[in-house]
UniProtKB/TrEMBL annotation, chain A:
One of its GO terms (biological process) is amino acid transport. Belongs to the leucine-binding protein family. CDD domains: PBP1_As_SBP-like. Transmembrane segments: none annotated. The lineage of its organism: Bacteria, Pseudomonadati, Pseudomonadota, Alphaproteobacteria, Hyphomicrobiales. It comes from Roseibium aggregatum. It holds the Pfam family Peripla_BP_6. This is ABC transporter substrate-binding protein. Keywords: Amino-acid transport, Signal, Transport. Residues 28-373 form the Leucine-binding protein domain. The keyword Acetylation does not apply.
Automatic annotation (TrEMBL), chain B:
Pfam families: HAMP, HATPase_c, HisKA. It is found in: Membrane. The lineage of its organism: Bacteria, Pseudomonadati, Pseudomonadota, Alphaproteobacteria, Hyphomicrobiales. Keywords: ATP-binding, Kinase, Membrane, Nucleotide-binding, Phosphoprotein, Transferase, Transmembrane, Transmembrane helix, Two-component regulatory system. Residues 348-553 form the Histidine kinase domain. One of its GO terms (cellular component) is membrane. This is histidine kinase.
Length: 411, 557
């Protein structure tokens, strides 16, 4: 009887230890860095709205032991040095458990370096350069939005499916922003094309700077090439400006235009309205009209009710970031043991609005890059998501590989 | 002759002159335009683009000056000097690192490199942008520009953009202890020439020592026909303006051809237009010319067409009026002179013939009175009657040459008509002629009654003579507007045109015993009384003489 009593007491104690004590919910402190003013500010503002939605979602999960996340959002203005200084203050003064966010890959690389040095987790939600999950990778960095590499993998497959049966090699020109994100996107596309055995020729490489206002010399140069496809690596306002100027100069009449990572972002469709040409091949990390699941529709609608507009893909990244922190801390049992949190993050799976039925976003344990489905579409008329007049449709869906792809040189 | 006149007329000469005057500028302008379009590109480059080319070079100079200034700020920092004095492997101070990070936030700068004097790069900011040296680094152009060296450019390739280095040494006590380099975005420099692009016409190339050529977007360019070049904005660095790749020759040749064709067509149209105008003008001027010649030859019967345009029509109308007036003037002048001659002759006849005749008649009368032989008395009677006839003829002639002035008074036409019928009734009956009076019985005219009676009698007798086998003689009076018309017509033998033209000339007669003065005297009497005399006749159908008297002067009922 005594033995039984002891055993029962021991079991009860273990149960108490593993369950959060009622009324004493676990709280996580996160400092998120987004541009809230200047170029790219919309991404920051959408992320902030999505963070609120995620927090609301976590409140509903509190009875199931999910921790709540307190978030400090700071404006980076897309500047590296400013971001670094803000991140230092968040670590030193606010004592945050997690850094999160960052839209620009260059800024992200700087913040990631600081996170490594300070041993603070950095959950990337919106930047996409593969450098962060390869050459810059460290134990405290995780990314919960699809990176450029998976976009380019999907893009390479799309090109192969479309042009693979031709007798002569497909001629590809690339134009992307002049920084790591652009370089990596182009590197990856070429590598995947080679890996697939797609015969292609490079008809030109062009690197206009970020936030350029006049792309006409580049568009003129593209028009002088004999390319079949122009793959564009731009995002945000650059993409809008480029599309408007290229349409004026007749680029879309001459070449098939493709952008696999950010060109299909809802924000751009809304900005361009009727200026968005039809027949462009575009994708984004999240679409308001794909997957056609109840979960995605609910997320998009909830966001619209909160913000008065439809979400850009940045919202989905930030939403995933907050859920990822909560899930990891819940699995790790608190914020104290960083090794357990890392382990939990490395084996993280999440069910997100952007996941099609039967699929869960899954973290690659080696490269700390979440693996998600990529949907590539063509621009068609669709008035359902005003103010956009043109949306993506005619989808082709590309599931991620089992693990994040790496190349021979270790990148 | 008309052909010759046609060929040389003044209008044609003027028109040909005008044509030549129009064609010379046309040819001149066409030649000038052709020359201009032939040299279009060269002219454009020379006149318009050189200034832009120099402006782009100045922009590039300024861009480099700003970068050099930036580099100087880094080199002059004490932390920079300290960094090079530290042991190898030491880290950059946080202050210097933040300063360098701030500098590389410019999209024009990829990275800042800190190197030993030996060339070894010991630090790169940002750290993840360490340089991947291209093959052939040692063969890159290297120029000294003031205190800095410029290495490059390295053209884009292998998925990375092009760049060049601006290097500046760090000195301490006049000893070189290290080098700071800005790794610059190549396109930031080349884009400064983008404004010079004129698609398909010309485009700029940034040329370094004639061996590296770049487009405005920093990619490799190929040598092509150079149109202009700027000054050096760095030693060995220039902007060249080259042909734009578009085939300008073909459209240019086409434009030239079209322009020349248009000029030739214009000239031909001009010639055709002038020919047409010349023909048209001649068709109006030549008849005028011929008409004028006819008048000079005394022929007033050559009218000209009056349907010419504008002044030509007016000229033709004026010409015709002049011709008619001249004809009338000359005719009346001849008449005046003829009358003067007749008047003189009449005075002579009256004196030299009538007076002796009166003596002869008196003498014959005396001789007859004393003559008992009946046969001789009869002979005297014959002499007397012939002398009376001669005297009567002379009387008519005198009437014609020096008519007595009319004494006008209102005369009721009806009464005058009736007197004539009564006077001629017997004779008419003998000749089986019916005299018919008609018209407005109340009409009266202002006229000398004796003259009027003589006029009607002369005309009626003429009508009798024209109807030897009988017929109808009609006298009619009626009002027409402001005039009163009196007509005397017969349905006798009438006259042919030749006779009718001469019938009013004195001494013209178709009768053996006619004096040839009846109708001229009658016409003269009508005109003396302010009337007009018209005669119409057709051979075989009869003659109508119409007298027109004005109502006002001729009286009223």
């Amino acid at each position: 009887m005594t033995t039984m009593c002891r055993a029962f007491l021991a079991f009860f104690c273990i149960l108490l230890a593993t369950l959060p004590v009622a009324g004493e919910s676990l709280r996580i402190k996160a400092g998120c860095l987004f541009p809230l003013t200047g170029p790219g500010a919309l991404y920051g503002r959408d992320s902030t709205v999505a963070i609120k939605l995620a927090q609301k979602h976590l409140e509903s999960l509190e009875p199931f032991g999910y921790p709540q996340v307190d978030v400090i959002v700071e404006d980076t203005r897309s500047k590296s040095l400013r971001s670094l200084q803000i991140a230092r203050r968040l670590i030193d003064e606010d004592r945050v458990d997690f850094l999160c966010g960052v839209v620009n890959s260059s800024v992200a690389r700087a913040v990631s370096g600081l996170a490594r040095d300070e041993e603070v987790f950095f959950i990337g939600t919106d930047h996409a350069s593969p450098a962060l999950t390869s050459e810059d990778l460290h134990p405290y960095y995780f990314r919960v939005n699809n990176g450029t590499r998976l976009s380019m993998r999907a893009g390479a497959k799309y090109i192969r499916e479309t042009y693979g049966n031709r007798s002569e090699p497909v001629k590809i020109a690339f134009i992307g922003p002049d920084y790591e994100y652009g370089y990596q996107a182009w590197d990856d596309l070429r590598r995947f094309l080679q890996q697939q055995g797609t015969e292609f020729e490079i008809a030109g490489e062009y690197w206009p700077k970020v936030f350029e206002t006049d792309f006409s010399p580049y568009i003129q140069s593209l028009l002088r090439t004999d390319a079949d496809i122009v793959v564009n690596g731009q995002w945000g306002l650059d993409f809008v400006t480029f599309v408007k100027q290229a349409a004026q100069l007749g680029l879309f009449d001459r070449l098939q235009f493709m952008n696999f990572d950010a060109g299909g972002n809802y924000e751009l469709l809304a900005e361009l309205e009727n200026d968005m040409p039809l027949g462009l091949v575009l994708s984004a990390r999240h679409h308001v009209n794909w997957p056609p699941t109840e979960r995605n529709r609910a997320f998009v609608e909830e966001f619209r009710e909160e913000a008065g507009r439809y979400p850009s893909y940045a919202a989905q990244g930030a939403y995933a970031g907050i859920l990822a922190m909560a899930e990891a801390v819940r699995n790790a049992g608190g914020t104290g043991d960083k090794d357990r949190i890392r382990e939990s993050l490395e084996h993280l799976t999440l069910s997100l609005p952007e996941d099609p039925d039967g699929f869960r976003s899954k973290m690659d344990p080696v490269n700390h890059q979440i693996l998600q489905v990529q949907a590539i579409g063509k621009t068609i008329f669709n008035n359902s998501f005003a103010p956009a007049k043109v949306m993506l449709g005619d989808w082709r869906i590309y599931y991620p590989p089992e693990s994040w792809p790496t190349f021979k040189n270790g990148s | 002759m008309p052909l010759r006149a046609n060929r040389l007329n003044l209008a044609r000469r003027y028109l040909w002159g005008a044509l030549v005057a129009a064609l010379i500028p046309l040819v001149f302008i066409a030649a000038l335009y052709d020359r201009y379009s032939a040299d279009l590109v060269d002219n454009l480059v020379t006149n318009r683009v050189n200034a832009n080319l120099e402006a782009a070079a100045v922009r590039m100079s300024n861009f480099m000056a700003v970068q050099v200034n930036k580099l100087e700020s880094i080199v002059d920092l004490p932390d920079t000097t300290d960094f090079f004095l530290e042991e190898e492997g030491s880290a950059i101070s946080p202050l210097l690192r933040d300063f360098l990070l701030l500098e590389v936030e410019s999209p024009d700068v990829y990275a800042i490199e800190l190197s030993r004097v030996s060339g070894e790069t010991v630090a790169t900011v940002p750290a993840n942008r360490t340089r991947e040296d291209p093959a052939g680094l040692n063969t890159l152009p290297l120029v000294q520009h003031g205190a800095v060296e410029i290495l490059g450019p390295v053209l884009p390739g292998q998925g990375r953009p092009g760049w060049f280095l601006i290097r500046m040494p760090v000195f301490l006590n006049q000893q070189k202890i290290g080098v700071v380099s800005l790794r610059m975005r190549l396109s930031s420099l080349t884009e400064l020439a983008a404004q010079l692009v004129e698609p398909d016409v010309y485009q700029p190339q940034i040329v370094v020592f004639e061996r590296v050529r770049m487009t405005p977007v920093g990619t490799e360019a190929f040598s092509t026909k150079e149109l202009a070049r700027s000054r050096q904005f760095l030693p060995g660095w220039r902007i060249h303006l080259v042909e734009g790749g578009g085939d300008l020759e073909e459209p240019r040749e086409r434009i030239r051809f079209v322009l020349l064709f248009a000029a030739v067509v214009s000239a031909l149209v001009l010639v055709a237009l002038f020919l047409k105008m010349s023909q048209r003008l001649s068709s109006y001027l030549v008849p005028l010319n011929e008409g004028a010649k006819a008048i000079a030859d005394g022929n007033f019967n050559v009218p000209v067409s009056e349907d010419g345009p504008g002044e030509l029509g007016t000229l033709a109308r004026s010409y015709n009026r002049m011709r008619e007036q001249l004809e009338t003037l000359i005719a009346s002048r001849v008449e005046v002179e003829r009358r003067a001659a007749l008047g003189g002759m009449a005075a002579g006849i009256a004196h030299e013939i009538r007076n002796p005749l009166a003596t002869v008649v008196t003498t014959v009368h005396g001789l007859k009175r004393n003559e008992n032989d009946p046969e001789r008395r009869q002979m005297f009677d014959v002499i007397s009657s012939e002398i009376t006839r001669v005297d009567k003829t002379i009387g008519e002639f005198l009437n014609y040459a020096k008519p007595s002035p009319p004494v006008r008074e209102p005369v009721l036409i009806r009464d005058a008509f009736r007197s004539i019928r009564t006077l001629l009734a017997t004779s008419a009956h003998e000749k089986n002629i019916v005299i018919d009076l008609s018209g407005d019985s109340s009409l009266q005219i202002e006229i000398d009654p004796a003259h009027f009676s003589q006029i009607l009698l002369n005309l009626a007798l003429n009508g009798f003579d024209a109807m030897p086998d009988g017929g109808h003689l009609k006298l009619r009076a009626y009002r027409d507007g402001g005039s009163i018309h009196v007509t005397v017509s017969d349905d006798g033998s009438g006259m042919d045109d030749a006779t009718r033209e001469r019938v009013l000339r004195p001494f013209f007669t178709t009768r053996a015993k006619g004096s040839g003065l009846g109708l001229p005297v009658t016409k003269q009497l009508v005109e003396t009384n302010g009337g007009e005399f018209f005669i119409e006749s057709e051979a075989g159908h009869g003659t109508t003489v119409t007298l027109v008297f004005p109502r006002g002067s001729g009286g009223q009922q």
